[in-house]
Amino acid sequence: MNTAVTGGERVEARNVAFLGFLTLLNVMNFVDRQLLASFANWIKPALELSDTEFGFLTGFAFILFYSVMGLFAGALADMVHRPRLVAGALALWSALTAVSGMARNFVTLALPRALIGVGESVMTPASMSMLADRFPPKRLGFAAGFYYQGVPIGVGASLLVAGYLAPAIDGWTAEEGDGWRNCFYLLGAVGVALAAVMLLVRETPRRSHATDAQLPAMPVAPPDAPPRQSFREILNTLLQALSNSRALVFTMAGGVAAHFILGAAAFDQLWFADERGFEREFIAQRTGWIAVFAGVAGNLFGGWAGDKWQEVTGQGRPMFLFWITLLLTPVGIAYRLVAPDSLFFWICVVSGFFQLGCFYGPTFSTVQELAPPQIRASVVAFYILMLNLVGLGIGITGGGLLADALRGSGVAEPYTWTLLCFTVLSAAAIPCFWIAGRRFAADRDRLYAALEGRG
Alpha-carbon distance 245 to 303, whole Å? Predict the structure, then answer.
């Protein structure tokens, strides 16, 4: 049976429900990923870590395995049963989260964190691939934005776990100050239970997307018979897609640049407590609530406004990100310098989480639209590789090294100047998004013309 995918296609309720479930799993993904940064004020002194060691644990110890394995995970998602792949990965990273709670030093925490990256690398490539098969192009920005509510909700929830749950369950074991460890155990158990539910999900039929101008009907592959492609074929198609689309390359480059400060922000909770004078439970609670509400607002606005911008202007969603980044980068710089008891300080906190939320829907839907349909998961995996290995990797690990170096040189506020430095570096995203937005329509039309010719 053939079906054409058009901009006016209605989204079935079961697909919306599936989007909601994947978003829940993505929340768990980012809760587990963010736990070390959220518990920085507990874990760093408990394990006697330096900033460089802490940066390594939240940076390359996790990101190297996460990013490199993500490329293979994307290829797997293009070849195998995706729900089963996600279920196995979720069970793996959840079990390792529980193991992380047993850590007694740098080494015993580094080992499970590295392997957690292997499990979590599967989640987004497989999920974005399935969503692209369930949602038409006009709704893909919304779907990606909704799915990526998992970022602000997950980040916020991990802070709320640190601020509320850890003190509440401290003392469950004989050891004093074990609240953070018990949170790791509890979250690991919840993740394993959700993995069992994911095993019940059927595979999504794979299909090709068309632009709003209808393409010829594309065949839908049987749910359990994904297209047979070798890894070499997937890699060759990926390299060809990158060489033929400047919009795709500069969208990815802008995302990487934006992640420099997101990586360095792993030191935010230490900055709040050590250099802005906040009590650690209070600031975890306050920023947790702000992350949830401002981040979700940013995700919903970014998904909707990015779709509307592209529909009205034809310039592509990256141009929308250009304006958002251009307007809010000065706020991010001022944020690190203003007094913490001022109203403007809290406006800056809200602005930062709102801007983070705006990013995901437009950028991932753009990557999906510019990717050849047979390698969508692999393209997303490659993008995630670059975001994490280059963007977050430089931001987190470089942030730890710079903070230690500044402290060793006698700088009074090493975290402040480290975070300020990486905020300025992230401004490189502005010209990248501008170029991608200008090139988007031409590169997308070239891709779809090639698909139409092949069809």
Answer: 23
